[in-house]
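dude i think i finally got it to work??
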Amino acid sequence: MATLRGLKDSVRRVLYPAYESRMVRALPADQIPKHVGVMLDGNRRWAKAVGHDTAHGHRAGAANIEPLLDWCEEVGVEVVTLWLLSTDNLNRSAAELDPLLEIIEEAVATLAAQRRWRLHPVGALDLLPARTSTRLKQAADETRDVDGLLVNIAVGYGGRREIADAVRSLLTEHAAKGTSLEELAQVIDVEHIADHLYTKGQPDPDLVIRTSGEQRLGGFLLWQSARSEFYFCEAYWPDFRRVDFLRAIRAYAQRERRFGS
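look at this
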């Protein structure tokens, strides 16, 4: 059995690069998503499946981030949003959460040090430990002038929290201007709220990918994804490969987008 499995792996290593190259050449340049959101799901289940602890799964997941960014650059994606930690995840035990936050900090610092991508933290940073929020802000400062792929790092992120924060920011702004609630109620529209989201000024995601076989949003980019296309992949995040990514891009390119019509 082990010999057969090894043979299959060898065949894949030989055939897949050629298959992937053909897929890349066949992608229509005018139908590539500009903004891709990725829900990096399945680290814990992957770790359990391979007989390791949860931290090992998170480290394996972190190691797969840089390849993903390479793949995005390869096909012409301009913005990527990576959901690394939700607000719900903050309720996990300290025994799991502390190592996970450390892994996230290390991964973000490594990405920033390369100065290939412009990093932008999105989430309720005030809910995070001071060390984590400080390192996320440092990564943003260190890459602010980088002319490359914009990478949103969603840590301590929840879609409902983002909308609530946007409304709070909007109200605070208008209170400072002396706008009454009655006046604001007469003029407020969706663009006013969009201008106060964590991703303000960015295009909404064209494509949202979720790994691990789960087929739900779970609170990811609730406002921004109203017209997004979705792609659900069975692979756990640490096993997500270039061919899986290219299949997602191909599926997106083949769809007729209706934008709610």
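The mean pLDDT is 93.
im so relieved honestly
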